[in-house]
Give the backbone structure.
Amino acid sequence: MKQISLALMGAIVLSTPSAATAQPLSYFTWTTNGNAITITGLTNSGYIGAVTVPATINGLPVTSIGDNAFSGCYCLTSITIPDSIATIGDYAFNCYRDTVIQPGSSLTKIIIGSGVTNIGTNAFYGCTELGGILFEGNPPTIPGSIDFSMVFDMGFETTFWPSAYYLPGTTGWGSTIAGSPALLWNPTLQSLNVQSNQCSFDITGTTNIPIVVEATTDLTRGTWVPLQTCMLTNGLLHFTDSTFRNNPTRFYRIGYWSGHVVVTSP
């Protein structure tokens, strides 16, 4: 995980995609060939909330997400895929519902680990609430496009292209990937200032990348409170925390936020 840190007078600011902890193994179903694991789904397809796929199961690496693995899991809010995964199968996160004017899912955020090299056909079909995907590695092979198609009443279909975000230090990226705009996700910290009653700093980076500024008073407990979410309009944000002095120590981090920015087909 890439990280930039700056410390001054009790304030630590981190610039990194936020880390996540995997659910218990009992949440998942899988198969194995004796050398590696393929995730085939959730034991409860109605699970509500965020899911982090484990990197290992029973000492074996988890290297793929199978076809239709999370298809129909409409209540997931985010998916984090570890670096051990190389392949995401066809319709893996299919959220399409064959009903009239019904939203596909609650899925708004996907972080794809650096090991993913192949993403299957229509892997995100129907995930119309997903505003963007953060890729932590080089661009994977994707057949066709990563558009989200959603069919409404009387057969009208609209298609969305989510933004793809990639990290500094990766290679092979252009201005688009599989029909979607690709943007460098590179929030950078500038000008940390601590005054008598507040802490402030500037964040610069690529124009219109989504970020969230979070804070905690204890790094060991991992409870982070979002203070501000936004798109980095014009590539700059001046952030001020007027409650800084209410805590003996205040820690900050800048993470990836699933900003809903999409391009709709004509």
Notes: The first strand starts at residue 4 and ends at 8. The domain at 4-17+189-256 is CATH 2.60.40 (Immunoglobulin-like). Residues 121 and 143 are 6 Å apart (CA to CA). The radius of gyration is 19 Å.
